[in-house]
Amino acid sequence: MNGWTVAATAVLAGGVGATVRGVATGPLRRRVVAQNLSTSLACPGLLLLAQGYDRPSYVDLALVLALLGPVGTLVFARLLAEDLEQDPPKAQRVTYAVAGLGGGVVLVLCAAAGPGRAMVKLLVTGALLIGGNLVASRALSGGFARNRHG
User: Which residues of 112-134 are buried (b: 16+ CB within 10 A; e: fewer)?
Assistant: First the structure.
């Protein structure tokens, strides 16, 4: 066990516990935010595991998750728009904290990887992770309501 796997364990253990509790209990607004945050916490965990186990294929999995996770959240936001309009989620601090965690993990891993294709893949994954998380969180809070009605 090295420092990368310890960090991945901490990110995954803390994130999975919080998101499972959020998805399993509480009102709808907390459940959809927890679903959005679950993918945003799994990606940095996978990136840390990729470095810890020296498995570049885990980076590919994190890239796919960073791309598809926010899309799933946007589908939930669209399907549950009427219910969320009455009681919109307010999780700006958590969203920015998770986006900062993802960005920090990507920057540390870019420094460890050095220049090359691996660094480009990490930067693309980080951009998708942070951008997708922020867009999906904004959609959940009703930020795109004007566009939905016309």
Answer: ebeeeebbebbeebbebbbebbb
User: Which two structure tokens, joined as six digits, stand for 107?
Assistant: 């920057």
Whether 47 contacts 109, CB under 8 Å? yes
Its pTM surpasses 0.90: no
CA atoms within 13 A on the CB side of 138: 11
Write out pLDDT tens, residues 68-95. Answer: 999 988 888 888 888 888 887 887 888 8
Question: Helices 117-140 and 92-113 sit at what angle, rounded to 10 degrees?
Answer: 180
Q: What is the DSSP letter of 54?
A: T
Domain ranges in the chain are 3-144
- The tally of CA atoms less than 13 A away on the side-chain side of residue 12 is 13
With residue 106 as reference, give the H or E element that holds it.
helix 92-113
